[in-house]
Amino acid sequence: MAGIGLSGVTKTYPGGVTAVDGLDLTVHDGEFFALLGPSGCGKTTLLRTIAGLEQASAGTVSIGDRDVTRLAPGQRDVAMVFQDYALFPHMTVLDNIAYPLRVKRIPRAARHDRAREVGAGLDLADLMARRPAELSGGQQQRVALARAVVAHPKAFLFDEPLSNLDARLRLSARTFLKRLQRDLGITTVFVTHDQAEALAMADRIAVMDAGRIRQVGTPREVFGRPATSFVAHFIGSTPMNLLDATVTGGRLTLAAGTLPCPADLPDDTRVTVGIRPEYLTYSKDPVEDALAGTVGIVEHLGSSSLVTLETDGAAPVGVVVEEGAEPEPGTRGWAVPRPGRVLLYRAGGGDLL
Ligand code: ATP
């Protein structure tokens, strides 16, 4: 078993910044786990604390059944892949891949055999004699992965390993990395600020903000039922509509119209209504139980478009409309929520009700 356990982990830097704040987390054996959150929320610090590159100020870190809190990075049996790959520029691809085995004092012939075998599996057989500067970004990434795989670590720790790749290569690298991880079955923690990447790759996701975890769940859970309006706003390629509303007689009154209230709440309760633009159906004609507005900006997303309905003085409402069905700017439009897709949050940036 090589799950990862964090209990009450806090990391305060010497300057006084608390980057990770009393965090509890369990990553299961063999799981592909994404740490997601905005810049500065503490993702990299948390990963480095698991790796032993930072010492936790409080709390414990365990890998498998070992408490590794006080162990040096080399004793933790984890492999970390950094954003810039951190390859040794003066070494060949072969020596780069074999490096972790050299550290373990494996004899030269044996470590080269093993490095060639791993390199061949990652399509690097013809590049073994080159140096990192003579490789493309995607090839360098594969060398960094081969170096991580070669010593059979208990866990992989990835810090935004795809962020230096161009958009197209990034997509194929996602699939490749996911398949590699699944085939090897190695527990993996993957740091990203890209919610689409986390949704596409991870078995489970932790959404972090200000050193704390706001939600842990499967991609379906964090996308479909975000636990707070922060998570709701952060997840999704088009941000969730978060609209002020008041409950009156079992209905929600919003600036753009009224909707049935999906929960039994007393009159005058103020809430934030969360509805994904994908879960609204657009109508050019007036309909009941809908949000109405004037068509503003229409953004083309590819096979669909994001239509913005402007409402007087309140937040606009985004609706995803199929390609070819986009309305004319300036016309009146209505957006009807799909059944079961209206979420309610406590007013003022609160939790799911
Ligand atoms: P990004 O996505 O921008 O890399 P992150 O979520 O990985 O951000 P961290 O790099 O962990 O965030 O930083 C968390 C907080 O800790 C930030 O406020 C950052 O300024 C601070 N911090 C990071 N490293 C240090 C350091 N060595 N000394 C002092 N403060 C630090």
Automatic annotation (TrEMBL):
A GO-annotated cellular component: ATP-binding cassette (ABC) transporter complex, substrate-binding subunit-containing
Keyword ATP-binding among record annotations: yes
Gene3D superfamilies for the chain: Nucleic acid-binding proteins, P-loop containing nucleotide triphosphate hydrolases
Single Gene Ontology MF annotation: ATP binding
Residue ranges occupied by any ABC transporter domain in the UniProt entry: 4-235
Keywords associated with the record: ATP-binding, Cell membrane, Membrane, Nucleotide-binding, Translocase, Transport
A Pfam match: ABC_tran
UniProt-recorded name of the protein: Sugar ABC transporter ATP-binding protein
